[in-house]
Amino acid sequence: MSDTSHDTPHGSGPSLWPIAFAIGVACLLVGLVISWILVVIGVVIAVAFGVLWARDVTRDVRGEVPQVEPETRAVADEPSVSTTTATPTEPLGTSYTRSRFLEASTIGLGAAIGAVVTLPVLGFTVLPSFTNLEEHDADLGPLENFPEGQYVIATFLSNPAAGEVSRRTTFVRNNGMTDAGEPSFTILYSRCVHLGCPVQPNGPIDEEAAKKVKNVELRPVLAQSFGCPCHGGLYDAEGNRRAGPPVRSMDRYTYSIKNGHLVLGELYSVGNVSGTGATAQISRYPWSVPGTHVDGVEAWLYPIVPSQVTG
Amino acid sequence: MAAKSKRQTMVDMAVLAPLDWIDERTGAVRGTKWFLFRNVPRDVSWMQTLGSAALTAFIVQALTGAILAMYYEPSASIDPVTGKPVAYSTIQAITDDLTLGWLVRGMHRWGASVFIILLFLHMGRVFLFGAYKYPRELTWITGVLILATGMLMGFTGYLLPWDQTAYWASAVGINLNGTAPFAGPWLAQFLAGGPEISTETLPKFYAMHMLLIPGLLIPLIGIHIYLVTRLGVSSPPWSSEEAGRERPPVQPTGARAGLVRGSGGD
């Protein structure tokens, strides 16, 4: 028994008719767009080769089954043929049977198809939370609305299209002029850096002096500290933690002066503030979720935060 | 035995024949018998019903939740009629306007707590009875996963009324996730759909609450119940009876007396 006998095709071999049939169908579809003649040609081709294909496939069922050897696993019967030369170890590759190939290719194709479907869905699930995040500069109105040395509770819509759900509260203090002659502001963000509850100023609000300019509400307040109602976090006038569970100083907004208006920029996190007002030294870090350390050993737990990547 | 009565024949024709027909094709009747008519230790008590109670609570949650979904709308945009967010307005309508809406919402709202409480009681019973031991380790592990996904249901469901409590409690919950090392800030931003809770957070939590997490929870419950059925109910730790053992056949008193150790033989 020679080795080649195992490779002899048996049953119905591969057929070219399906390819011709597919060409006919393609011709038909193109014809639908271009011309009816092409449709007729396509139908003729598809029907003709479809019939041939069907005949080919059903040959075994219709006609006599040709006398063929049953399929055997290669090598399996070799020892019985030549026991003297048989080696106990199979040569590499001979045991890779058709069924194993089909099994592997089915699983592999299935995995590939699954990945093609899953990966975009997974990306769509996760990526929108991190990409194309809209940032809007918020105009808090003329500088005259911010008396020097006093905190003003300023609320504004960070994304006017989203509506009230985007309303943010800041505590804005006009620090007067810096030594360089530029206006200085301390703008604390009201979200507690413990777990994000709304921090409240510890002092009376001057409701009579409250102003409302478009979507911005300004209410002066006599406060030298801020407290969080949820878990008792307490901050001083510079936003440094004085008591309770917060892990860093209050977040701040960058700002700029445009046409005599105070305009808020991006939010950033603060490790600690030394000094006060215009001369304060602020250790600034990329914004991170409340509850995460930005400095010290604990910050090693948060080596990369989303705002570093999304900008 | 005498020939079947006419009545018996009619019952066979009307009930048993269709059941046989189904069972022959699906095995459903045998499967139901396997699931329901199984041996349990003789000394089980009400303690072993906590799991079924939790399952019942879950079914109540699923039904009431499906019905609430017909009237609730997870939108943060402002309703032009009420001037309030649509989600909050629909909750108000369910509670105040729709007939028996207050009852179904109340069942869902309080049933959520009942479900979690029953899960913990069930877990405590299994722990104290040592019922998590061989061969039931995987039953315990799937049970822990059910508890975790059940709590995720509670977390995502809490935001849906879209009131102040919902908003701030969810903010705290999301930020709690954010404090996890390394991945925490990413997880928090994923949950909120951005740096903070926004209009996108509400439908996201709604989809998780009624589609994604139930899709996890229901198969887990199925596996859990399959394992319970397969492995049988365990006896209490003080039991002298082996779990899942067949009941000994009823025997005449005399022979039975002979089984008692020390009195046998005569």
Strand order of the largest sheet of chain A: 4-3-2-7-6
Number of domains of chain A: 3
Q: Biggest interface, and residues per chain?
A: A-B, 30 and 29 residues
- What summary fits the major beta sheet of chain B? none
Q: What would CATH call the homologous superfamily of the domain at 46-230 in chain B?
A: Cytochrome Bc1 Complex, Chain C
Helix and strand succession of chain A?
HHHHHEEEEEEEEEEEEEH
Total number of beta strands of chain B: 0
Please give the share of residues in helix of chain A.
25-40%
Q: What is the helix tally of chain A?
A: 6
pLDDT below 50 for ≥5 consecutive residues: which ranges of chain A?
1-5, 78-86
Please, what is the CATH homologous superfamily of the largest domain in chain A? Answer: Rieske [2Fe-2S] iron-sulphur domain
Largest sheet of chain A: 5 strands, antiparallel
Helix content bin of chain B: 55-70%
Question: If you compute it from the alpha carbons, what radius of gyration of chain A comes out, rounded to the nearest whole angstrom?
Answer: 38 Å
